[in-house]
Amino acid sequence: MTKRIAFLASDAPVAQTARAALIGRYGNAAPRDADVVVALGGDGHMLRTLHNTQHLPAPVYGMNRGTIGFLMNEYNEADLLERLDEAELEIINPLSMRAMDQAGQMHEALAINEVSLLRAGPQAARLKISVDDRVRLAELVCDGALVATPAGSTAYNYSAHGPILPIGSDVLALTAIAAFRPRRWRGALLPKTAKVRFDVVDPSKRPVMADADSISINDIDWVEIRSEPSIRHRILFDPGHGLEERLISEQFT
């Protein structure tokens, strides 16, 4: 039985060219009618595709027409149907973010990779960190901090010297970004069920922004972050090139 495929491409010319070639070969279905969604672009486009299709039953198979492509498979037009038949399924849960800004407005967003807090002015941020309603760090003076999922642990988290987490682990990474006080505090590993809260100390003098997969909120007062098990993103990878293998390989490069 022929698979119904929905091809979704980024705006990059190379991705649009690939989409046209693949539609000419395999046809194109609407995402709501598709058996599988094929995302063409880089990791940013893959994240957008996962967010936009999370309500659909079709899994997402990415082919790299971007830069890094950590979440993508290699691009090849010729054997797509065979690769889809043999692809292995990975299921990941996103983070949910609730952020209150200084005007008293509540913002909510989901993040597949990480939720990050970043200073938005010339002075370092001052953050109070609570885990499950218990204050764990009364003051972190830093450029920012983030909470990352295992799937996102090789992205911003790893660049900030956070740990790479095995894809099957029920763990979140809490990582400081350029910590000044405590100077040597690098972060913590937390159970996946943990609720993390950041309170911004002196937000008018030291403004902070929050970002969840490129959804940015300015002038925040506090942020709460937790894993969202009710949402299950289904991603397909070529055999031997799934997230677990990529996470291990990344640590030896």
From TrEMBL:
It catalyses: NAD(+) + ATP = ADP + NADP(+) + H(+). Pfam families: NAD_kinase, NAD_kinase_C. GO terms for cellular component: cytoplasm. GO terms for molecular function: ATP binding; metal ion binding; NAD binding; NAD+ kinase activity. It is found in: Cytoplasm. NAD(+) binds at D43, G44, R48, N113, E114, D143, A151, T154, A155, Y156, N157, Y158, S159, A178. This is NAD kinase. It comes from Falsiruegeria mediterranea M17. The lineage of its organism: Bacteria, Pseudomonadati, Pseudomonadota, Alphaproteobacteria, Rhodobacterales. The gene is ppnK.
